[in-house]
Amino acid sequence: MPRIRTALALLALACASEAAVRLPALISDHMVLQRGVPVRIWGWADPDEAVRVEFQGQTVSSKAGQDGKWVVWLKPLAAAGPLAMTVAGSNSIVINDVLVGEVWIGSGQSNMEFPLSRANNHDQEIAAADYPLIHIFMVKRKVAEQPMDDIEGTWAAVTPQSIPTFSAVEYFFGRDLYGKLHVPMGLIESNWGGTPAEAWTSPEALAADPLLKYAGEEWSATLARYPAAQKAYERRLSEWQTAAKAAKAGGNTPAARPRPPQGPGSSHAPSVLYNAMIAPLTPFAIRGVIWYQGENNANEGHAYRYRTVFRDMIEDWRNRWGEGDFPFLFVQLANFKSNPFWPVLRESQTETLRLRNTGMAVIIDIGNPDNIHPTDKQDVGYRLSLAARHIAYGEAVEDSGPLFRQATVEGGAMRVWFTHAAGMQARGGGALTGFTIAGADGQFVPAEARVEGTTVVVSSAQVAAPTAVRYAWADNPECNLVNQEGLPASPFRSGEPHYQ
User: Which residues are CB-contacts of 349 (< 8 A; sequence separation ≥ 6)?
Assistant: First the structure.
C-alpha cells in the first residue's frame, strides 16, 4: 500500500505540473518589453484554465483554449524598470527585473554572430560593458522542419561576464542607441554562421513567389546527391584522420578537417532556421531588425536572385509580426577578396532599399581584404544605429553615404547623380578613385572623376563616347567617395536596375 500511495502521489504531482501555467523562454526574468505598442503575453495551461497577468498597473485575464494556449494583451507601456510581472493560473509565476524600452532583433550569418570577444579592442570593450539597462538574449541554434512555438535561451543584463560571446555588431548598435535614447534596450540575437537567406525565409514565402522556386529544387537535388556525397566524405575523413595522426607525430600541423556534405538536418535547408529561430519570436513585440548576411548567397547562382529572396523575406517577417513595416536595417557586404559576384550581391542589397523603412550600412571602407570577418564591428554598429535613429526614431541625422540615383551622358563624360550627397569628397583629400567608364563595346577602363555639387563627372581619354559608369564594382575595390559625414558611397553600376 505505501508503494501505491507513493505512486499515486507522484502521478498527481506530475499532472499538477503539466497543468501549471507555462511561459515561453522570452517571457522570463530580465526580459525587455517594447514600449509604446500593444504587448502580447502568452503561454500554455490546461484547457479552459483562467490566466491573469499583472504588470505596470494593468491586470488582464484570459482562458486557455482547448489546445492549452492562452494570450493576453497589455496596452502600450511606458519606458520603465526594473519591474515585476505576475502571471497566475493554478500556479503563480513572478518575473523579476523586467524592463520596458526598445527591443531589436539581430539576425543573419557569421558576421552578425561574430562575438565581442573577437572584435577590435575587445579586452577594453568587455571590461567597459556594464549596462544594467541593456539586456541580451541569445537564441540557441536549432533547425526545424515545421514552425516551432518556443526557443531556448535566457535574458541577461550586459556585464563583462555576460557579453563576450554576444554579437559584437548588435551590442555596439544597442549601446550606441542607448546612449542617444536613454531608455532600456533589449537585444535578441538569432543567427547562424555560413547560412543562406533561403534558410531564414518561411515555407509560405518561398512557395508564394515563382521566382523562388529554385530554392526547393536545389535542395531536392542536394538530398538526392547526399548518400554518395556522405560515403565520399567518410572516405576522405578516414584518410584525413590517418594523415593528421602522422602529422602530429612528426610535429607538424594537420591539414584542415574535411567538411561533411549538406544533407538531412542541415542549416542550409530552405526555411529550417525561420521555423526554429524566427517563428517563435514573432509573437514578441519589437521595434525592428538588424541583419548582416549575404556572404553565403554571393555566388553565380544566387547573387542576383538575392534581391528577390531578401525582399520577400523582409516582407514576410513583417507580416508575421503584424506590426506593419517595422524598420529593417542591414549591412552591405564589406570589401573582401572573393569572387566576381560579390558586387552583384551588394547591388541586390541596395535594391532592397526600395522597401519602406529599410536602411543600409555601407562598409566598403572598413573590411579586411583577406578575412571575410572584419574585426571593426564598432563602425558597423554605429552606422546601423544612424539608420535606426533616422528611420525608427525620426532624428534629422544623415544615415547613409552617397547613393547612386542616375547617370547621364554629357559629351565625352558621364554625370552621376547621387542622393545623400552633401559635401561629397575624396576621403582624406586628393583624387577620387574607384570609378570606371565604358563605351558601346562594354569595356570598362579606369576613369577620372571630380565632384560638382551633388554630382560626380566621370571621364576617360580612352572612351570618347561613354555609355555606362561604375563605382567600386569589384569584390575588393579601391574607392574613396564619401559625403560630409564621412559615410562611404555605395558601389553601383549604371544601366542595371537600381535604387532611386
Answer: 294, 306, 307, 310, 330, 332, 333, 360
Of 64, 105, 66, which is closest to residue 87 (Cα–Cα)?
Answer: 64
Residue type, 340: P
Q: Are 248 and 241 in contact (CB under 8 A)?
A: no
Predicted confidence (pLDDT) at residue 386 exceeds the cutoff of 70: yes
495 band by pLDDT with thresholds 50, 70 and 90: confident
The answer to whether the beta carbons of residues 188 and 139 sit under 8 Å apart is yes
In the chain, CATH 3.40.50.1110 covers 103-245+266-400
Instruction: Please give the helix or strand (H or E) that residue 137 lies within, else none.
Output: strand 131-138
Q: How far apart are the first and last CA of the chain?
A: 81
159-182: per-residue pLDDT in tens?
999 999 999 999 999 999 999 999
- Grid coordinates standing for 19? 497543468
CA–CA distance from 435 to each of 13, 343, 481 (Å)? Answer: 73, 14, 10
Asked whether 466 and 443 are in contact (CB, 8 A), the reply is: no
> Under DSSP, is residue 106 helix (H, G, I), strand (E, B) or coil?
strand
Task: Output the pLDDT for position 10.
Answer: 43
Contacts of 143 (CB under 8 A, 6+ apart): 265, 266, 267, 269, 272, 273, 275, 276
What letters, b where the CB count within 10 A reaches 16 and e where it falls short, cover 69-94? ebebebeebebebbeebebebeeebe
Domain 103-245+266-400 falls under CATH 3.40.50.1110: yes
Q: Is the pTM for the entire model greater than 0.70?
A: yes
Q: Which residues contact 264 (CB under 8 A, 6 or more apart)?
A: 223, 226
Chain centre distance of CA 275: 16
pLDDT surpassing 50 at residue 253:
yes
- Residue 471: CB atoms within 10 Å: 28
